[in-house]
Structure formats: C-alpha cells, structure tokens
Amino acid sequence: MIRTKGVVHFTIPVTDPARSRDFYCQRLGMRLLRDTGHGMVFLDSGGDCIILAKVDKPISTAGARDVHHSFLVAHEDYAPALAELKASGVNFLFNEDRRDGVIDGPRAYFEDPDGNVLEIIDLAAYAGATA
Fold this sequence. Notes:
- By secondary structure, the protein is α+β, with helices and mostly antiparallel strands.
- It folds into 2 domains: 9-56, 2,3-Dihydroxybiphenyl 1,2-Dioxygenase, domain 1 (Roll); 68-131, 2,3-Dihydroxybiphenyl 1,2-Dioxygenase, domain 1 (Roll).
- The chain has 2 helices and 9 strands.
- The chain has helices spanning 17-26, 75-87; strands at residues 9-14, 31-35, 40-45, 48-54, 69-72, 92-98, 103-111, 117-121, 125-126.
- Strands 5, 6, 7, 8 and 9 form a 5-stranded mixed beta sheet that branches.
- The model has no long low-confidence stretch (mean pLDDT 91).
C-alpha cells in the first residue's frame, strides 16, 4: 500500500490568471513564487503550494458548496480577515462554527473571482492530528 505523507500542491482553475493572482495575493496574503506567463501561477500559502491554472471557462460547482478549498488563518487573524474580505466586496456564502467533527472551528465560505468556493478557518481541532 502507498502511504502518502501530505499534499505537495493543489490546483485551482481560473479564467484570468493575472486577476486571480492579484486576488489570492492581495486578499488572502499568498506569496507569488512564479508566474509563468503561460497560464500557470505558483503561490505559497504558509508553506503549501497553490497553483492557479488557466481554463477557458470556469468549472461549475453550482449547488456543490462542499467542493471547495480551505485555508488556515491564525486565531487572532480570523475576525480581521473576515472584515477585510467583506470590506473588499468579496461574495460570502455563509459562516459557521462546527464542533465535534473531523475539522472543528469557525469558518467562512466565499468565492474567488471565478466562483471557486474558498474557506478560511480558525482551526480549533483536527481529528487527523491525533489519529
């Protein structure tokens, strides 16, 4: 059996890599690693690699909010992050605070410029940390 050790990167489909690069860097504080200029943008999110890859049209997740990407924020940064995103006009879907699950803590779901659903979470507990 193969035993993976973690995630190296994940890729988010975007129609305008430059616009999305700016959103992810300016709104979510990711650091630009490389913009290939050919439809791929490599970003760093706290030591994790995020790749923005150009697609001709957005990949629809309409009605499937469970399909999303989640980003960890420090406890003290969570409320200010929500306020900053709201002030910048980001479209929020909903907020919740889950407890007694696999991934616990307050979280907010919102959309990037292509309608990809994103989440920021103030992680209180993760069942995998003790498994």
